[in-house]
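Structure Section — protein described below
Tokens — whole-number codes for backbone shape
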Amino acid sequence: GYPYGLAGENIPLSARLMMFADVFDALTTSRPYKTAWSLEKTTEYMMEQRGHFFDPDMVDTYLKEKRYFEKVLLMFADNHL
């Protein structure tokens, strides 16, 4: 919603999708300042933040399609988990 103060469904779907994907990548990728989170820990965080930081529909879709996220993680295993 930044910089316009948008919230919920007023935030464009494309922005909600990109934010979810960006956070997922940041959590599951090792960085110089942190180790990668496991898929389980990432999933727990996403569920805890459902309806707060994350659009509930994004989390629900992630949970239904989690196997595809896991496949992507395995494809890029050198930087993830």
Q: What stands out?
A: The helical segments are 13-28, 39-48, 56-64, 66-75.
